[in-house]
Amino acid sequence: MTPKTEVEYLKLLRPKDWAKNLFLFLPAFFSGDFTNTDKWLPLLAGFFSFSFAASCIYIFNDYRDIEDDCKHPVKKARPLAAGTVSKSTALVLCVLLLVSAFVIAWFIRDKFVFVLGIYFLLNVAYSVALKKIPILDIMILAAGFVLRIKAGSVIAYIAMSEWIVVMVFLLALFMAIGKRRDDVLLKLQSGVDMRKAISGYNLDFLNVLLALVSAVIIVAYFMYTMSEEVIIRMGTHRLYYTCLFVVAGMMRYLQIIYVKADSGSPTKILYKDRFIQLTILLWVLSFVLLIYFKDITLFNR
C-alpha cells in the first residue's frame, strides 16, 4: 500500500469529522464529575466506537451519493467520487468499521450498544431516504448530536439534564441550517441541486431560520445559566459569565455565513477559524474555573 493510497483511505473515513463525537464527553464535563478518571477510559473507548460507526455511515453515504458528489465543487474530490478508492474496497472497510464499533460498544455497556444502534439506523434511513425531505433532514442531523450526548451520559452513568439536550439540539440545528444555506448558494452559482432536499429551501427561508434559531439559542443559554436547578447542581450562580463567549461565537459564525459566505462545514470552520477556536477555548476555561475551582476566593466574592 502506497502512502498516497493510505491518504485516500483516511480521507474516506473523514477523521476530521470525529471532532463531533467529542460531544460524548459533555455530560461528564457539565456534571462536575470530569475529574473522576475512572470514567475517562470508557468515554475514550466510546468516542472511538462512535467514530467508527460514523465513518461507516460516511462511506455508505458517499457510496450512494457518488453521482451527486461528482457535481459538487468540493465533494467531487472525495475518494469514491474521484475514483481513488474502489467501491468494493470501500464496502469491505464499511463492514469492518461497523463490526469494530459494535464490538467496542458491547464491552463498554449494553445500553450504549442500544444508543449506538439507534444512531446507526437513523443515519442509514437518513442516507437512503430521509435526507430528501426538507426540514426533516436538518432535524435528523441535530438529533444525531443529541444521541451523542445520550451515549456519553450512558457510558459515564450520568443523568442527562434537559438543558444540555435543548442546547445541543439547538446548536446542531443552527449549524445544519448554515450548511443548507451554503448548499443553496452553490445551487444559485452552478444551477445544479447538490442535494435532493434543496428544492424545499431558499435563501430568505434559511435566513429567517438562522435568525430565529440563533435568538432562541442565546435566550435559552441565558435561562440555562440562571436556572435555579443548574445553580444548585453546579454550586455557583456565576455561570452567566460564560454567556459572553456564547454570544461572541454565535456572532462570529453568523459573520462567516453572511459576510464571508463560507458556511459549508461546521467542522471545517472549527478547524480553521482562530476566532471561534479562541472563543470555545475561553468558554471551556471559564466553565472549568466556575465549576471545578469555584472555591477559589476570586469566585466567592
Structural description of this entry:
Helix 6 runs antiparallel to helix 7 (110-128), helix 8 (136-156) packs antiparallel against helix 9 (162-190) and helix 10 runs antiparallel to helix 12. By secondary structure, this protein is an all-alpha fold. The model has no long low-confidence stretch (mean pLDDT 87). It has 14 helices and no strands. The chain has 2 domains: 1-160, UbiA prenyltransferase (Tetracycline Repressor, domain 2), CATH 1.10.357.140; 161-301. It is 70% helix and 0% strand. It is globular and about 60 Å long.
Which labels suit this protein?
Tetracycline Repressor, domain 2; 70% helix; 301 residues
Summarize the structure.
This protein has 301 residues and is mostly helical. The protein is 70% helix and 0% strand.
Secondary-structure map:
Elements lengths: L2 H11 L12 H5 L9 H25 L1 H4 L9 H4 L4 H22 L1 H19 L7 H21 L5 H29 L12 H23 L2 H7 L8 H16 L7 H7 L1 H19 L9
Helix pairs in contact: 3-6, 3-7, 3-8, 6-7, 7-8, 8-9, 9-10, 10-12, 12-14
- The CATH topology of the largest domain turns out to be Tetracycline Repressor, domain 2
CATH superfamily of the largest domain: UbiA prenyltransferase
Question: Kindly state the mean pLDDT as a whole number?
Answer: 87
- Counted up, domains total 2
Main beta sheet, described? none
**Roughly how much helix do the residues carry, as a percent range?**
over 70%
Shape: globular
Number of helices: 14
Number of distinct beta strands: 0
